[in-house]
Each structure stands twice: as C-alpha cells, then as structure tokens.
Amino acid sequence: MLKQAHAISEELIEWRRDFHMHPEIGFELYRTSKIVADQLEKLGYRVRRGVGKTGVVAEIGEGGKLIAIRADMDALPILEQNEHEYVSQTPGAMHACGHDSHTAMALGAARLLAKEKLPGRVRFLFQPCEETTDEEGKSGAQRMAAEGAMDGVDYVIAQHVDPASPVGTIGINAGPASGGVDSWFAVIKGIGGHGAHPNKTIDPFYLLAHVILALNGIVSRRIDPFEPAVVSIGAVNGGFTENVIPESVNIAGTLRFTDEKVHQQILVEMKRAFDITKTLGGDYELRYEVGGPPMINDKWVSDVIEKVGKDLLGAENVRESEKTLGAEDFGEFMKHAPGAMFTLGTQKKGHEDYLLHHPRFDLDERALPIGTAMLVEAARRFLQQK
Predict the structure, then answer these.
(1) pTM value?
(2) Is the domain defined by 2-177+294-384 classed in CATH 3.40.630.10?
(3) Got the DSSP string for 209-266?
C-alpha cells in the first residue's frame, strides 16, 4: 500500500498545493468542497454535498462494517510569510495547520480504496470549520454529526500533521489526546466615579484583581493535580481615561479539561471566583460558549493504528504522540463511535521552528504518501477485523 501511495505522489502534491494556494476559512469552503466532491464522484463514491453547510460525505462499498475517515479542510486567518511558488493567493488566509495536506491525503486514500475489493464500507468526512465556530458556537464536526454524517459508523479515524516530528514517523496513544474546551466571557460591575475619590465608588478593577487571583487558583488549589485542566484569561478590557473609575470591566478566557467531572468542577469554582465581586459590593455577569468535547482515543482503535504504523514504517518509527490540551473537534465524531487520531511526522528542513499556526509553517511533502498509505491500510484492517 505504501508503494501504491508513492505512485500517486505527484497528484497528492498537486492537490495539496492547489488547496494551499486557495485557502478558505470557516464554513466558507465553496471552492474546496466542490473540488473534493467532484473528484469523489469521478471515483465512484456516493457523495452528499453541503453536509454541515459546506462539508462533503462520500461512501463506497456495500454491507459489513463501516469505517469513517475524517479530513478537515479549513484554513486560518493568517497572512502567509513564505515565499515558495505555491504561497497563498488569498491575502489574510493561510493553511497554517496542514488541513490542505489532510484533504489531499484523504483524496489520495479515496482514490486507492476505490480500486480495492472492500469487505465493508468506507465513508469519508471532509469537514469545514475545525478552527473556529459559527454564529451559534457550532464547529464543523458538530454540524456534520447533527446532519447524520456519523450514522451507522462503527469506527472513525483521522490524522494530523506534526511539523515537530521527522518524515516517516507517526504518533499514536490511547486515552486523552486533546482537551475539551469552553470559552467564557464576564462583565464585572461596580460603581464608577472620579479617580480622586475611590471611596465613593466600587472600583471594578479592585474587584477584578481578586477575581483574577481566584481564577488562577482553581487549577493549582481546587483541581486534583493528577487531572489535566486549564483556566486561562485571554482578554481584559475596561476604562477609557486615566482619572475616571469605570462602571465595569470585561474579562474573557478559555478553560480546558479531559474529564467531564473536572469540567463541571471548574464551572462551580469559576462561579465562586466571580462571587467574590458580590462580597465586595459589586456584581457580575458570566456566560459560556460550550466548545468541543475532549478527544479520547479508543484503546482498541489506537492499537490497530499502531500495528499498521509498525508494519508500514517499522516499530522504531512509531511513538507515543504528545498529549495536549489544545482543542480538536474530532472528539465530536468520537461521541458517536470509537475512534482515534494519529499524528504524521512532516518536519521540513529550514522550517523546524515554524510550528502549527505560524505564518511560515510548511511541511515536507514526502510525508503525503505516507499519510495516505496509513489511512488506506488502517481502513482495510478495520474492515477485516472479526
């Protein structure tokens, strides 16, 4: 299978560079999704367009087990700083997270699988909007799953490029692989007044200072130290001139977790932190935008992927992937079926310091057939399992 994938390397590179030159953000993936759907129809897949706004679902095979392969397609609102011949042609948009290659490798896998006599079915999930959410706080995985993309799926897998690891390696581990995420937004309310007479005000900055200390103490003093968790402040805004104490200040941030009990505990502790404002005579409003769940790799699915990696690349090139509390909405698909995501080494010479989401991010395209072969062989193994 690795040999077959190498035989279509030029096509994989052509697809990847085309997507890289024409990045699209969020759900606005009209060009990308059309190319994907058109290619899949030519290969004989049963294709659904417009799933989750601009997602594509394509299936091949009959009866038996159903394995789903997910590839995210969206870019980031970043101005690219590379100077190669396939640099982004869309100012302010860039494939800085490797989704152009995810899409190309999944298309390559679809091409190779179309020639196989499958003992079951393979479904491809080409997903929009992994990097962000829409006006209702929904990501692409949430939208696609809600529209039946995971109906009947027995297993679901995905890969993600890893620019910190050498080409020819993969990373996989069972258990927590990325964090669940909520965004939170608050208004701390006081009573404004003249900066020379703070005693006649309830200073929201004074209230804020106590809230910040309490928020920063949640993980270090309230959460079990063996449980991964983060409560971070990302923005503080308030006031408009130097001698006026304002009525209120705004504060916002993110929280991360891998266990739902910890998630609920964080919410309780955050309320306690903000209740300090009431003790000191003020008030607050606090709201959450609920993001994706944590990504928990299924052990059996991870074991199969690990075995595929060892068979294709050698045991010495299969490692445990680095755990992170970074968000990845693939966990939304894994709410519907056991699954796992593996990482694919794509480190490029001269770009070792430019990791994911950097304006000079790039990858070594020799990794494309490797990722393609991994997807194909993993799908075949899952369908062959008793």
Answers:
(1) 0.91
(2) yes
(3) HHHHHHHHHHHHHTS-TTS-EEEEEEEEEE-SSTTEE-SEEEEEEEEEESSHHHHHHH
